[in-house]
Structure formats: structure tokens, C-alpha cells
Amino acid sequence: MPRYAFLVEYDGGPFCGWQRQADGQVSVQGLLEAALARLDPALPVVAAAGRTDAGVHATGQVAHADLSRDWDPFRLQGALNHHLRPAPVAVLAVALVDAEFHARFSALERRYRFRLLCRRAPATHDRGRVWQVSHPLNAGAMRAGAAHLIGLHDFTTFRAAMCQAKSPVKSLDEIRITEVAVPMGTELRIDLRARSFLHNQVRSIVGTLERVGAGAWAPDDVGRALQARDRAACGPVCPPQGLYLTGVRYPQEPFPAAPAP
């Protein structure tokens, strides 16, 4: 059976998350499998690089499925997007891949972006797509706090209590914080890069860094929280709507490289 990889974009707002649910809640995986079922009687099962939570978006999710017959990737992309309408899910590209390719287990790196809007006036066009705070944030202090998290650490403090990962030890390769001017405010774009992440790790980190930017925490408090290896030492977990899975890297890339955002 030929295996196809899919580059997928979605607005996570209407969904219970990526993963199909037994109780019938609407998920991105469920919609994509339903679209494939319209094209393939074998009812293909889809696996993804990251099982994003409810409300989390994606601009670079990667998934794969085995189909019962050969498809031209361009035609398969068009057919899937036809059956996905009007849901806010789009297949950006399709590629025929080797049978050994696995969207989750072959991944070398995952990239996330968190968008944090600082301004008093409510978000309009980006409502549901950013986390908004009404106070200014000190990006320099946030960068100093984030520096404590780079490298190989026990991230027990920054993972959800229900996280199913076998180990809390992860290597965080980069946290980059960029300030972007927006009308009457500033958007902070927090980009994180690692081979894999723990459940709620990104949202826990961003919520903690927001406290640093607001002046409630000192940058060194982030290092002390990390060393505590205690969930109670974490700052607040920020809401999901500002979080995006922006890309996944593989030993052999199935899709052409996109311009950096």
C-alpha cells in the first residue's frame, strides 16, 4: 500500500484537538480520516507529528496514511480539500513517501510559535488566534528568563500532570522572542524548537515568561522553578489560542522548504 505524507494547516478553535475522540467530538484527525474515507474504501488511519490540544492551531502539521491505490499527489490534495470544506482545515501539500516514513517517529525536530498580543484594545481580526494581555511586557527580561531553559533539562515543572511521556528530560534547542509592532500595541512572537515537547510544556513556559515580562517574576526565578522539578513551582499555564505548530523536520524532507515566517 503506498504511503502519503500530508502538510496540514488548521484553525484549532472549533476542534477538541488533533486526536480523534471516542465520544464523537470533532477533531482534525477525524475530519481528515473522513475525507480520506470518501476516496478510499480501506478507511485509512492518519498519524500526525504532533497531537495538538483543543484550541491550538497549525501552519505546518505533518501527517501520513497508507492508501489502497496510487494517487497523483496534486490530485489527492485537491480531492481532500474538496471533502474537507467548509471546515477550517487545508491540506497544503501531499507527497508519496517511503513505507518507513512515520510522521511522528521519524521527526527530528518540531517547531512551535506562540503569539502574545500586548495592548489595551481588544483583538479583532486575530481574536481566537492570539493570547492578549492589556499590560506591556519586557521582552529583554523574558529572553533572560528563557535562557535558563535552553539545553537538556528535567522539565517536570513545565509539564502537565497527565503527561504520558516516559521521561520529563528533554532538550530544548531554541527559544526566540521577537517584538512586532501592531496598531497601538506590540505582538511578541515566541518561537521554540526541540526534537519533542512534553504535554503543555510550551504553554507552561510561555505563561511563566509572561510573568517575567510583567515584572512579577525575576528572570532567575525561571531557573529556580526549573531546578525545583515541581509542577507547583511553574507559573500559570497560558491559554491555547496563541499556539501554533509551525513545522516539523525529517531526515529526508517530504515537502519543499517553505520561506521562514
UniProtKB/TrEMBL annotation:
<dbReference type="InterPro" id="IPR020095">
    <property type="entry name" value="PsdUridine_synth_TruA_C"/>
</dbReference>
<dbReference type="InterPro" id="IPR020094">
    <property type="entry name" value="TruA/RsuA/RluB/E/F_N"/>
</dbReference>
<feature type="binding site">
    <location>
        <position position="112"/>
    </location>
    <ligand>
        <name>substrate</name>
    </ligand>
</feature>
<keyword id="KW-0819">tRNA processing</keyword>
<feature type="domain" description="Pseudouridine synthase I TruA alpha/beta">
    <location>
        <begin position="146"/>
        <end position="251"/>
    </location>
</feature>
<feature type="active site" description="Nucleophile">
    <location>
        <position position="53"/>
    </location>
</feature>
<feature type="domain" description="Pseudouridine synthase I TruA alpha/beta">
    <location>
        <begin position="8"/>
        <end position="105"/>
    </location>
</feature>
<dbReference type="GO" id="GO:0160147">
    <property type="term" value="F:tRNA pseudouridine(38-40) synthase activity"/>
</dbReference>
<dbReference type="Pfam" id="PF01416">
    <property type="entry name" value="PseudoU_synth_1"/>
</dbReference>
<comment type="similarity">
    <text>Belongs to the tRNA pseudouridine synthase TruA family.</text>
</comment>
<dbReference type="GO" id="GO:0031119">
    <property type="term" value="P:tRNA pseudouridine synthesis"/>
</dbReference>
<dbReference type="InterPro" id="IPR020103">
    <property type="entry name" value="PsdUridine_synth_cat_dom_sf"/>
</dbReference>
<dbReference type="InterPro" id="IPR001406">
    <property type="entry name" value="PsdUridine_synth_TruA"/>
</dbReference>
<keyword id="KW-0413">Isomerase</keyword>
<comment type="subunit">
    <text>Homodimer.</text>
</comment>
<comment type="function">
    <text>Formation of pseudouridine at positions 38, 39 and 40 in the anticodon stem and loop of transfer RNAs.</text>
</comment>
<protein>
    <recommendedName>
        <fullName>tRNA pseudouridine synthase A</fullName>
        <ecNumber>5.4.99.12</ecNumber>
    </recommendedName>
</protein>
<dbReference type="InterPro" id="IPR020097">
    <property type="entry name" value="PsdUridine_synth_TruA_a/b_dom"/>
</dbReference>
<dbReference type="GO" id="GO:0003723">
    <property type="term" value="F:RNA binding"/>
</dbReference>
